[in-house]
Amino acid sequence: MQSNITLTSHDDLAVITMGNEARANSIDLEFCDGMLRVLSEIEAQEKYRAVVLRATGRIFSSGGNLVQILDGLHRSDSFLETLISALNSVILMLRRLPIPVIASVQGAAAGAGFSLAMACDLVVASHSARFVVGYGKLGTSTDGGLSFHLARRLGAARALQLLLVTNSLSAEEANSLGLVQCVAHPPALEETTLAMARDVMDLPPLAVREMKSRVSQASEHGLAQHLEDEKRAFLRCASSETFYQRVAEFVKRSHSPRNLPG
Q1: Tell me, what DSSP letter sits at residue 106?
Q2: Domains and CATH numbers, the chain
Q3: Residues 53 and 6: beta-carbon distance below 8 Å
Q4: C-beta separation of 112 from 144 below 8 A
């Protein structure tokens, strides 16, 4: 099956495009395999000086594919643990890249899609963007390093407030908290993102790599262990009847005829 994750080059800029509009760029094993493939290719090519992560369609990413997750829970197999482990590999590889990664976000970045955006070094968001937590309403904790990156960027109290109380942020709210570095009008999102990438690429490559390395070392010690601990917490929550019921209810609502396009 052909991956919906594609890699294109604009001179020294690598552009990763998530192109599964039909499934709102949801995160499943195929998604993770495609991301790991293109990230490995970028890592192997020393010519790249920056990366843009973008998506086609109205939504950046709706997060985990709940239909597949519900099916895995119904089978009581190891699917959910396998999926989170694959997502964690994507997050770690994103953070391991020696060059800056810029997320270009339109529409919703929800759940693990929010995690994916926060794993990038810089975020440019459309005015239409929303950053949605959603985990608590499903009866589980975070995954994909979201708790790690929110705590590092916001501090413990604000991170917990967002996870437990606020649940979602507009692009402007995320910008005011420092989670988003630039907000653009929807038609200008691509050009604004590329302009930021060009600013980065105008600097000497060695200086950029060294600065990213120093910042990463200062702020992200223990990410791999945190991802493992976060995965275990998610799986403990996911083993509850509450999680199964709430995922099933969400899937039923989202697939009812009144919620289908057309």
Answers
A1: -
A2: 5-186+205-255 (3.90.226.10)
A3: no
A4: yes
